[in-house]
């Protein structure tokens, strides 16, 4: 075999062995490493999502429990003092009387819900279609509120707290004081003769923002 041919054969042999012993193993290692890294990234992402979801659930559960306790305390405190005050506001026969009773109710409301800063509004919805508000007024039409699932459920189960919610990106609840990208919880309770001695109140509701997802 001549020199050039022998040299060509040696080169071919060298490159073939180099490919078998170096290049192919490196490719296998690279592909394997890429698969492992991709798996780890996906697992980390899933774990992060799971942790976030667990955090949201925990926050919501805590907010729901807090809102329910606050509303129950408000309704039952001092033998129904606050529903009686709301009935007074609703029955006011003059602007001065309405203003005075409203101020008393608003102050009592703020005292009752201290130290919570999350309650945007408290609303009494009356049987005659009227309403009495505390803090900020909810601007949703009464017909829309009364058609809500939480309102219907509350009417079906008087004196029990029912929970609803609104996404502030989709629903405007007040003219002022509302944040965007917030889930608002509604804690609602329909009253009967044992909790509303005036017989005027249909339902009382607290609207509060939640920290879930923030």
UniProtKB/TrEMBL annotation:
Q: Which UniProt keywords apply?
A: Membrane, Transmembrane, Transmembrane helix
Q: Which residues cross the membrane?
A: 20-41
Q: What is this protein called?
A: Uncharacterized protein
